[in-house]
Amino acid sequence: HPMRAPDLKFCSRAEINFPKGPDVPYSCCPPRPDSLNNIPYYEPPPMTKLPARVRPAAHAVDEEYIAKYNLATSLMRDLDKDPTDPRGFKQQANVHCAYCNGAYLIDGKKLQVHQSWLFFPFHRWYLYFYERILGSLIECPTFALPYWNWDHPKGMRLPPMFDVPGSSIYDTRRNPHVRCGTIIDLGSFGEETKSTELQTMTNNLTHMYRQMITNAPCPLLFFGKPYPLGTDPSPGMGTIENIPHTPVHIWTGTVLGSKLENCDTSFGEDMGNFYSAGLDPVFYCHHGNVDRMWNEWKQIGGKRRDLIDKDWLDSEFFFYDENRTPWRVKVRDCLDSKKMGYDYAPMPTPWRNFKP
Ligand code: C2O
């Protein structure tokens, strides 16, 4: 059976270390809609009526784009003053927490959308509504999120626009090494490496080749293990969720166990923990590129296509849109990003020629 959308009647406290580790409670349930009964199914508007949202590479945007994006994010932060508004910046970050830190109980099991085949479709729908909310706040229906182009040497560092202290897309809870243009190691889960920048970039292209081509010749290897209704969470990750998706989170967040500004001890905030990742605006930029890899992978050929298992296609999530309307969405309605009204500005993919 397909995974059901969570019923908010069964949302309760989350756990910062879910699913393992000492239990540290956290609350992140969304505001309740007026009626919990029969939340309708969302279908993207027909193609002809769609504004074309083209997501740009984050390192290549102009000043005008940066200004719009900052304005939209600060307006979203302002909405946090009303804790019943599901469009607020913290509310949106809490969406990730609720789906990933065990707040929802479905069919007697705690939900976790990571480490399974729900990873790609969940994040696609999540960004879809987040992007629409940002666009509506600046009355720009074509506004599109940027993508962190870490699969290209020019994008293998924190995109500079996110490193402007005081701006609405800055986050103080990052590892200091993300500043000053340090090159990211896409294969590292926290261990330090002593390679030159050139070696790191070359290794990164090799990682990309492996995860997109060698290790992901068929759907389940790319998407992750089956996770039908009533089964245990975290059955197993797909190639890209493992590397580079997870290393980018760990590299950006604070060092585990270090002291945070407010004197708490770090659980990897913000990017390095599910419950807090959405509090760093670069999260949505990182996931833009993860989502772009889904499109790229299908273009490589062979058996690289979407899954056809109904338990996947009919799995559901729950989100609020830019008008605070609650919707249920299905995996089958997010397989083609163009049909959803957005696409990615093309960038070369040099990893395709990096056979190890
Ligand atoms: Cu939902 Cu990148 O984590």
UniProtKB/TrEMBL annotation:
Q: Which reaction does it catalyse?
A: 2 catechol + O2 = 2 1,2-benzoquinone + 2 H2O
Query: Which UniProt key words apply to this protein?
Result: Copper, Disulfide bond, Metal-binding, Oxidoreductase, Thioether bond, Thylakoid, Transit peptide
Listed GO MF terms = catechol oxidase activity; metal ion binding
List ligand-binding residues for Cu cation A: H96, H114, H123
Annotated GO CC locations: chloroplast thylakoid lumen
Q: Which GO terms describe its biological process?
A: pigment biosynthetic process
Which intervals hold domain Tyrosinase copper-binding?
A: 114-131, 280-291
Give the enzyme's EC designation. Answer: 1.10.3.1
Q: Organism's domain of life? A: Eukaryota
Binding of Cu cation B, residues: H245, H249, H287
The protein's name is: catechol oxidase
